[in-house]
Amino acid sequence: MLSFLPGPVRGALSLLLFTINTIFWTFPILLLGLLKLLFPSSDWRKFCTRMQDGMGTVWIFVNNCSLHLTNRIHWDVRGVDGLVPNEWYLVVANHQSWVDILVLQKIFSRKIPFLKFFLKKELVWVPFLGLAWWALDYPFLERSAGAYKDIETTLKACEKFRTIPVSIMNFVEGTRFTMEKHRKQSSPYANLLKPKAGGIAFVLTAMGKQIHSILDVTIVYPHGAQNFWAFLCGKVPEIKVRVESLSVDAELLGDYFHDRKFRRQFMLWLNALWAEKDDRMKMLLRQEG
After folding, report:
1. CATH code at position 142
2. How far apart are CA 130 and CA 1, in angstroms?
3. How many domains does the chain have?
4. pLDDT tens-place string over residues 141-167
5. Cβ(130)–Cβ(123) under 8 Å?
6. Is residue 189 scored above 90 in pLDDT?
């Protein structure tokens, strides 16, 4: 443990280790992505995807080891027992910081299949990470093109996700929580923005019968959410996570974009889920330690 070092030193060391690890794994993951394009047979694609996901799992494992080396964080995580790495999951979570992604990768590492995120198209240009995300078949959404373009992208992604077990991750609020966004939205929740149903509704429509369960993740930073650099510098001493496993019932499967009755029903379900999450966050923030 190097937690005795000054915060900026630990931050710089963590960033260096993360960067080296990311560059190291980007090249073989990208190579397999290119080979999938050159030889697009289904068996070959499936083999390459399994290899890529395995590399991605090791990538995340090494990142977690680096974080353990440089930071002393008290992790209070409940609800991950009984999860299996060979089933399909839809993961939904609240979103406060880029740190949320590291949290999700840590708590689910080797417990469920490799996490695949829906990303903004602009993120494809992030050095090394953008290439790795592209090669790993992360869906890139082009918001400026409208909802139907997003539907098309989601459908193509779901087609790829059917071949081997995967965990599809969605930040349902669509953006990171800030008090300014909360005020502009007039959000009815104390700690959350309003949820957006379209993304998860379409995933459930496309893959609902294949998805083993929905994992509702609540992430709480008792000492306040921090940006990525502050996190690496050790300014997040405690993280609480609660995972609720929800069954994919028949009432969650339907045509969200054309059936108004189903759309209302689905939004009622999601709003109730978000209200429960808000209450859970209040309780966790009140607890000591």
Report:
1. 3.40.1130
2. 31
3. 1
4. 775 545 556 667 777 778 788 889 999
5. yes
6. yes
What is the rounded CA–CA span in Å between residue 49 and residue 163?
9
Q: What is the pTM of this model?
A: 0.91
Determine how many CB atoms are found less than 10 A away from the CB of residue 85. 15
Indicate whether 124 belongs to any domain.
Answer: yes
CB atoms within 10 A of CB 205: 20
167/85 Cα distance (integer angstroms): 9
pLDDT digits (tens, 9 = 90+) for 1-40: 677 788 899 999 999 999 999 999 999 999 999 999 998 8
> What distance lies between CA 204 and its chain's CA centroid?
16
d(CA 159, CA 272): 30
Assigned domain for 149 exists? yes
Average pLDDT, the chain: 90
Provide the token pair at 11. Answer: 């931050």
Q: List alpha helices for 117-197, DSSP H.
A: 129-135, 147-161, 179-185
Instruction: Report DSSP state, residue 3.
Output: T
Q: Which domain holds residue 141?
A: 74-286
Q: What is the pLDDT of residue 283?
A: 95
